[in-house]
């Protein structure tokens, strides 16, 4: 199947995107929720071995497949590794029919004007070449908006689309993620600013420049309906943002055309000590609930 087949799946197939891209800073917390404490590793290299084992267990589970999962977002370290004897990206697509994405940002800069833009990323061009050669379809990069500040929102969105155009030019589909912190005191106002800034950028794209959006579940239902319908947008996905899975699913079910791209909410309830049967059963029920919330 070609990249065109992958694009058609992203645009129209049911399901959601699994976020398996926790990196250095968030890995210990993700492992802690999975029941593995820091005494299980003595270096970053060992920690990444442990987290890859967790991700491999998720990806190889019988319930993890392309019938319900459109794509999976990987951390670079995961892309560089293997699952059952083949590269992670080829395992996902060739075995599971799940489209591989790569997290490409280098973390967040300090807060300015109520927002955190992405750190400089001088090696992005090389990383995009490496990702393309590895069979990666698209990318993901995250910024965070913490206040309803027009200057901060504009800085985030302008940077996201500037880098997004570079990713499109490299032949990949960027997932543009300007997250609004769920604890933002003026969340609805920040989201209105974000919506307008995104639409301005989308309307400036060329006809063949295709992007995806990953957005916080909004206070105003269907706020992003015109983003969902925009001809330059392959799909709009929602981040769980720290909401518990039940609340994230409830909010998502009210957003027509948005599908999930959950991380914490996906792995909630999974534990390293579970038997294979219990692990697969827990993951299966998570996938079922997230899929159902995405099918609106």
Number of strands: 11
End-to-end separation in angstroms reads 27 Å
Instruction: Extract low-pLDDT stretches.
Output: none
| CATH architecture assignment name | Alpha-Beta Barrel
Number of helical runs? 12
* Helix-strand category: alpha/beta
Q: What fold name goes in the CATH topology slot?
A: TIM Barrel
Principal-axes geometry comes out as globular
Going by CATH, the homologous superfamily would be Aldolase class I
User: How many distinct folded domains?
Assistant: 1
Structure description:
The structure is a single chain. The protein has 296 residues and is an alpha/beta fold. The protein has one domain: Alpha-Beta Barrel (TIM Barrel). Helices cover 44% and strands 19% of the residues. It has an eight-stranded parallel beta barrel, surrounded by six helices. Strands 3-4 form a two-stranded antiparallel ribbon. A hairpin with a 2-residue loop joins strand 3 (82-83) and strand 4. Helix 2 (27-33) packs across helix 3 (44-60), helix 7 (150-169) runs parallel beside helix 8 (187-202) and helix 10 runs parallel beside helix 12. The longest helix is centred in the middle third of the chain and has 20 residues, at 150-169. The radius of gyration is 18 Å and the shape is globular. It starts with a helix and ends with a helix. The mean pLDDT is 95.
């Amino acid at each position: 199947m070609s990249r065109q087949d992958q694009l058609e799946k992203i645009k129209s197939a049911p399901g959601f995107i699994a976020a398996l891209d926790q990196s250095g800073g968030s890995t210990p917390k993700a492992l802690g929720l999975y029941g593995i404490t820091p005494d299980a590793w003595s270096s970053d290299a060992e920690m990444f071995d442990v987290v890859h084992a967790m991700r491999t267990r998720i990806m190889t589970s019988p319930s993890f497949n392309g019938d319900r999962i459109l794509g999976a977002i990987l951390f670079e370290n995961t892309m560089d590794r293997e699952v059952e004897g083949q590269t992670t990206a080829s395992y996902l697509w060739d075995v599971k029919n799940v489209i591989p994405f790569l997290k490409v940002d280098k973390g967040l800069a300090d807060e300015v004007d109520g927002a955190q833009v992405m750190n400089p990323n001088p090696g992005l061009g090389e990383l995009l070449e490496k990702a393309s050669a590895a069979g990666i379809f698209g990318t993901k990069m995250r910024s965070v908006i913490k206040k309803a500040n027009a200057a901060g929102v504009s800085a985030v969105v302008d940077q996201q689309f500037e880098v997004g155009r570079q990713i499109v030019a490299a032949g990949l589909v960027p997932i543009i993620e300007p997250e609004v912190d769920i604890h933002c005191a003026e969340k609805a106002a920040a989201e209105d600013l974000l919506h307008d800034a995104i639409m301005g950028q989308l309307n400036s794209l060329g006809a063949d420049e295709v992007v995806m959006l990953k957005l916080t579940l909004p206070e105003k239902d269907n706020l992003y309906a015109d983003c969902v319908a925009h001809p330059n947008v392959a799909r709009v996905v929602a981040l769980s943002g720290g909401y518990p899975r039940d609340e994230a699913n409830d909010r998502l079910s009210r957003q027509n055309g948005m599908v999930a791209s959950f991380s914490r909410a996906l792995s909630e309830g999974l534990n390293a000590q579970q038997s294979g049967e219990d692990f697969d059963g827990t993951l299966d029920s998570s996938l079922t609930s997230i899929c159902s919330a995405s099918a609106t």
